[in-house]
Amino acid sequence: MSSWAGELIGTSRCFLQVTGMIPLLSKSKSTVLIYGETGTGKELFARAIHYSGERRGKPFVPVNCAALPDHLIENELFGHSKGAFTGALIEKPGLFHEADGGTLFLDEINSLSLTVQSKLLRVLQDQEFRPLGSTKSRKVDVKILAATNTDLRYLVETRQFREDLFHRLNVLSAVLPPLRDRKEDILLLADHFLKVYAKEFGRGAMTLGQSAKAKLLGCAWSGNVRELEGVVHRAVAMASGELLEAQDLDVPENNLPESAGPTMTLLSRGLMPSEGSFQEMKEKVIEEFEMAFLRELLSTHHGNISRAARAAKKERRAFQRLLQKHGLDRRTFSAA
Question: What whole-number distance in Å separates Cα of residue 213 and Cα of residue 245?
Answer without folding.
Answer: 8
